[in-house]
Amino acid sequence: MFKNNILTAWRNLVRNRLYSFINISGLALGIGCAILIFCLLRYHLSFDNFHKDEDRIYRVVSKTTYDMIDYSQGIPAPFGKAFGNDYTYAEKIAMRVNRTGVLFSTTGRDIKRFKENAAYVEPEYFDIFNFPMLEGNAKQALIAPDMAIVTNKIAKKLFPNENAIGKQLVLNNKDVYTINGVLKDIPVNSDQQQQIYLSYANFKKHNQWQASDSSWSSISSGVQCFLKLKPGVKAQEVENSFPQLIKKYCKPADANSYFFYLQPLSSIHFDTRYDGKIEPKYLWALAFIGLFLVITACINFINLATAQSLNRGKEVGVRKTMGGSTAQMFSQIMAETAVLVITAILIGMGLAIIVLPLFNQLFHTEIARNEFLKWPVLSFAVVLLIVVTLLSGYYPSIKLAKFNPVEALKGKITQQQGGGISIRRVLIILQFTIVQLMIIASIVIAKQMRFSLNSDLGFNKDNILLIDLPGKSAKALPTLHNQLSQIPGISNISFCSSAPMSDSNDWYGFKFDNRPTEEAFQVNVKRGDDHYLSTFGLKLIAGHNITSSDTVSGYLVNETMLKKLNLSTPQEALQKRLIVNGFSFPIVGVIKDFHNESFHAGIDPICIFSMSKDFYRCAVRIPAKSTKEDLLAIQTLFTKTFPDNVFSYSFLDKDIQEMYESEISLQQLMEAMVGISIVIGCMGLYGLVSFMAVQRRKEIGVRKVLGASVRSVLWLFGREFSRLLIIAFLIAAPCAWLLMSHWLQDFVYRINIDATIFLLSLTITAFIATVAIGYTSLKASLANPIKNIRTE
Description:
The protein is an alpha+beta fold and about 800 residues long. It contains 27 helices and 23 strands.
């Protein structure tokens, strides 16, 4: 019986090629997207879950509340030592100080220079995290100063035919480290992606104040502490001890604004307040998108299957007349559904494998193709097979199996027996509610991204090349400036600590106008030379520009700084003194406000001053139509000025775009999924129109015999479609408004969701759907009416 059902199912699918193609295509697209989204969810949910006792591993994070709330994954450097001395909650404690883009070089005859992410770590770090050693002893490798552990990737890159143990690395052309261990490569699903680990003793040696026991007033995002709690110790119990620790070691001014918390290892990847990569709400959004696509594909199948059932009435009648039972008919239709779904899953998985490289590029992931052969993905495919088969096949199978054999043989299957048009209407309304919901969401995201990236930021971000400068390069900067200015097309050059808008910000408490105590808020500090304003197009509204110097000589402040200080005019601030980080100098100028962070945050109080030893970047305004040769010329001059360094650069507009990485990825996914859902939705409309054309063929024939025009017949279909589309829109619009209003709350500067967004969504859907139903409705209206009436 089973073999017979499968063979019959296959014959029916081959016989109805168009029907099978539409169903398989819709299901394959929906299932392929669902599998890709499942792999993406699995990828993100797998981060750092491979560590032993990962449920007992925590990172200590901080929150400061001066005039605003600021979150940081960093804590004061002496925290680890103090906590270990005062409390016994932790089994292991390890400090880590991150260094990004550090210059390293090898020693010997063939010197290799490169930049890599590194970290100073205490030896206990490798007792907390399970990163296996290929060579050396992790517990002993970093006890002594001047030692390093590298990953296998770095070892093979630098010493392809040699043992890396005992080889030397030079940090910033100065500090020599001996490689004392080789780690197995860090898995891609880990947020701990440092490739070189250095002795923590060297951090203490080169950063004596920050590493000292008295540096509790300094919180840097790169200085982090990890704990592995003892079995049975609760996180809340540990957190309850932090206020007493803060009170004991921090200054009174800081103690009232410092708050420390334990962040579980499992949440590091998802908490964007502390530099997490993706928020859980985006994972939920992805899951719902995958679910919606599968639902729309199932709706297509149900509509087409029930429409097709009217053409299979005689087949059912013959089978039942020959003794076939309702159960046999049900199993036959379910077998056909299962064969179709299996085919769609295989095609969908093939499509997913083909587009995986593009998918990885879009979402900045590293999902391997062999992921599709692992049991979680295969199990998901089996679940999809069962669920989709039941969702898609159960209702058509029940309706078809219950046909009256006599009426079926006479071709008198009624609308109700064929499934009824009302259930089909409900399904189409649901389908196009989902489609319009996704279209509106996609339009809102696209408009917000366009607003964020194209709005006036208060400075010029276009055609700015940012070059990383080596440490202690102040003496060579005039030479570099003179040489770069000789390149045709370069109009402005500035040395600075960072661009006006940057994800790297320094904050300091300060005193104003000789007041005895620090202000209740901190100031965002930027260092730049006298070309900083002209290079970035910042506007001076009072006073004069700063002058380039090796030490601070005066400050520029922005309008927000004046508002925070309760000053009504820029002139009130001029020549008033600021004491920032121990430097007491007058305010010499006021600049117009500019956005220093993404649109997720407001404009901060800012002060700019010149201090050449803190210039880490060179900003160069290049021609709008610059070529590779222009960039090569800049690189050549840089290498000539700093022969022992690696030329690395970025473009300011790209750096700003990366601040919206999650939103842009979501936008691109939504646009792709909207396209796919529209394709699937059009197939669903084809199913509805096919049903209407079959069900109403006699009515159409009578109308044409009585003189009805092709246009009036087309309107017969269009009127039905219009009603369904408007109902779907009325459901989708308020739901989309609520969802996207909530999403926009993450932005301080955001668009308004106006009526044009909803009208655009309705117009797009109406146009595409009209095109989709046009062929079938036109075919029905042009059919010979005599053939349609003859069945009476």
